[in-house]
User: Which sequence fits this backbone?
């Protein structure tokens, strides 16, 4: 069974990298690769009791369908709203502290997992709408995911998140051209 799990995670990882590279190049086929990748990882996350990460993956499948439809309908020009980066970075510690006050019994990884969920949803909406600042949010999400996956001994998934972080830097560069 571990060989099957490893093979599925490898396929999902390759599809995930393909997704980011194609989206960075503004190619709508990236959405299809992302849908398949997220579907595989959703199952893996739920099996590992990472319910927020699993929820992110399921929602990303649905958002991927929306992205695919939107990008196939029309050519959407890349837009930039530089203040969004500052706003999202400033809100990050506020959300974390707020979660401590509202839910004091949650572990720190659960808190980060929930922040990744929120930021992932916002980042996907920005990606579908071709708003350049989506890449900054993906950097945050991929960093958080790497930390939470590593702390839950999902080393393959943590490594993948680090790779996604690097490929997101590529996307940020591509969309600034």
Assistant:
């Amino acid at each position: 069974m571990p060989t099957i799990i490893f093979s599925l995670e490898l396929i999902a990882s390759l599809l995930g990298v393909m997704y980011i590279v194609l989206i960075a190049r503004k190619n709508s086929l990236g959405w299809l690769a992302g849908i398949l990748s997220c579907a595989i990882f959703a199952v893996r996350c739920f099996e590992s009791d990472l319910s927020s990460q699993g929820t992110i993956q399921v929602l990303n499948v649905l958002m991927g369908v929306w992205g695919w439809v939107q990008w196939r309908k029309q050519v959407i020009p890349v837009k930039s709203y530089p203040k969004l980066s500052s706003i999202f970075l400033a809100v990050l510690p506020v959300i974390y502290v707020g979660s401590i006050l509202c839910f004091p019994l949650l572990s720190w990884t659960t808190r980060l997992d929930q922040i990744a969920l929120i930021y992932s949803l916002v980042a996907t909406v920005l990606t579908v709408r071709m708003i350049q600042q989506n890449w900054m949010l993906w950097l945050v999400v991929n960093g958080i995911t790497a930390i939470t996956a590593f702390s839950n001994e999902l080393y393959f998934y943590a490594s993948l998140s680090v790779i996604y972080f690097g490929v997101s830097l590529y996307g940020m560069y591509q969309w600034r051209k």
Q: What stands out?
A: The mean pLDDT is 88. Helices lie at 2-24, 29-47, 51-73, 83-102, 108-128, 134-151, 155-176. The chain is about 80% helix and 0% strand.
